[in-house]
Design a protein that fits this description.
The protein is built from two helices and no strands. It is an all-alpha fold.
Length: 64
Amino acid sequence: MTTQDKTMMFMQIAMKYLPEAKVELEKAGVELSFEMMEPFLNLFTKVMNEAYDLGKEEAEKKDN
């Protein structure tokens, strides 16, 4: 799986949960806009890439 493929997959996951996050942020008095979302989606992608790589390393260790 390429980095671009993973990024697309992670963004699809993020968008799946975005409505829930938006509701929670609005309850806290934070209005969510695309400009506000972008840095958090980038951070989410970094976290997911690191988690993916960690899981991949663990799976490779089990195979050896």
